[in-house]
């Protein structure tokens, strides 16, 4: 599988793209100057003769929109606690790591089966470019084994009051063991035998957005000046398919598939602790109760609906450490997603997915 180039764009980046398209469209449709110059008589478009002019128009338009955004945000925030990063341009280099773990327990006809799986750790390097909080990121994966499927696409938007992250993932780098109580023996599961595909979306709402800033910890577009915390509300959705590949299956492992989707709602708490003026320590926990869940487990011979218990839960944990210097900043952050769903007397799935990054950024 060819090397992947993954793009991570924030919600605000879409605004810049729209403004670019609008400006170029205006430039293309602007009437030509009929002063009679030779260049105009030759039919050369105005937009190609004055590219700097259109770039300046675009920059002015973007700055006006961002000035309006900043003036509104100042009215909604307590600048004694938080403030937007004053530097207009920010360049950040990230080293990203991610992984996943599954523990699946099922019981049928008094026979207990246990599957324990761990994905291969994924490593990527990304470059983030940001102008006044509007950013785009480019990422590449330097280490990738042959025959492995390891596609991951993320969109993150961290705001002081509202935020969201979206994930699409498809990978087959899991390895582990399968235990059967009837046979009282374990079978090895190697890379490439199992495939996991998932789509997830997580949203949050911060009640104390005047004094508490998520972006200060995770995008560094804001600065937390004084310690503060907030109650946080959350909403999550996930669709997942986990099962055997169509090829390379060992004879003692059935062709099985587990599909499930769920919706979770909950509330938690986050806190930004400021030490020694320029050190930020962040910790937040957002537990959610699943208000809707549906899933099926199937193999070569049967298709069974999964049974759920109350309360099935979903937990989002976030951690970050950031240190600001005069012209640059550095730190690390991590996000942990934990799910516990189902009934262990039929089928129970415990899933943990984590992402972590080390970063260094420059303020210009």
Give me the strand/helix succession: EHHHHEEEEEEEEEEHEEEEEEEE
Most strands sheet = 17 strands, antiparallel
Name the structural class: alpha+beta
Total strands: 19
Write the layout of secondary structure elements.
Blueprint lengths: L4 E5 L3 H17 L8 H4 L4 H4 L1 H26 L5 E3 L4 E20 L2 E9 L2 E10 L2 E7 L9 E9 L3 E10 L2 E7 L4 E5 L4 E13 L8 H4 L3 E3 L3 E17 L12 E19 L3 E20 L4 E3 L7 E12 L3 E16 L3 E17 L1
Antiparallel strand pairs: 1-6, 2-12, 3-4, 3-5, 3-19, 4-9, 5-6, 7-8, 8-11, 9-10, 11-13, 13-14, 14-15, 15-16, 15-17, 17-18, 18-19
Helix pairs in contact: 1-4
Structure, described:
- This protein is α+β, with helices and mostly antiparallel strands and 364 residues long.
- 15% of the residues lie in helices and 56% in strands.
- The protein has five helices and 19 strands.
- It has a 17-stranded antiparallel β-sheet that branches. Strands 2-12 form a two-stranded antiparallel ribbon.
- Strand 7 and strand 8 (162-171) form a beta hairpin.
- The longest helix has 26 residues, at 51-76.
- The two termini are 38 Å apart.
Question: What attributes characterize this protein structure?
Answer:
364 residues, alpha+beta, 17-stranded antiparallel beta sheet, two-stranded antiparallel ribbon, elongated
Structure summarized in a few sentences:
The protein is of the alpha+beta class. It is built from 5 helices and 19 strands.
